[in-house]
Amino acid sequence: MGRKSAALVEALTGRFTDHHAFMMQLHLDRIDQIEATLAALDAPIDRVMEPVSLARELLMTVPGISKNVANVIIAEAGVDMSVFDTAGIWHRGREYVRARTSEQPLFGVHPSCVWGPPRLRLLPSCV
After folding, report:
1. For residue 61, is pLDDT > 70?
2. What are the pLDDT digits (tens) for 18-50?
3. How far apart are CA 116 and CA 125, in angstroms?
4. CA gap 81, 78 in Å, rounded
């Protein structure tokens, strides 16, 4: 960081006035206020999330899911996955896709004309 600081000091020499320092201090103070507010919210959120802490810990094992993201997922979706008819949704989803790709064209172009084998792209409906 020392080398970067020296480069920053050199770049700002003569260009960083008292006004800039005042505005920068306002921004830094605001950042500190926001961080203090977030820190104050951590304890109540942890208290509320205590009953579902195991689910939160499991969610956090997924790469990219932090404690905050896990809290949001649980707050939005809950932990009771039995309310979701997952198998039925996927089954109906596959049927819908199969029906759409074998019946009428979507947006006037049959899907096989776009990503189908080259021999199908020569069909009159693809021209």
Report:
1. yes
2. 898 899 999 999 999 999 999 999 999 999 999
3. 13
4. 8
d(CA 54, CA 59): 9
Residue among 119, 121, 96 nearest 110 (CA): 121
- pTM of the entire predicted model: 0.49
96 closest CA partner among 116, 113, 111: 111
Q: Kindly state the DSSP code that residue 123 receives in the 8-state scheme.
A: S
φ, ψ of residue 106 to 5 degrees: the values are -100, 125
In contact, 16 and 38? CB cutoff 8 Å: no
Collect all residues with Cβ–Cβ distance below 8 Å to 106 and sequence separation of at least 6. 100
User: What is the tens place of the pLDDT at every residue in 66-81?
Assistant: 999 999 999 888 888 7
- In DSSP notation, 35-96 reads HHHHHHHHHHHHHHHGGGHHHHHHHTTSTT--HHHHHHHHHHH-S-GGGS-HHHHHHHHHHH
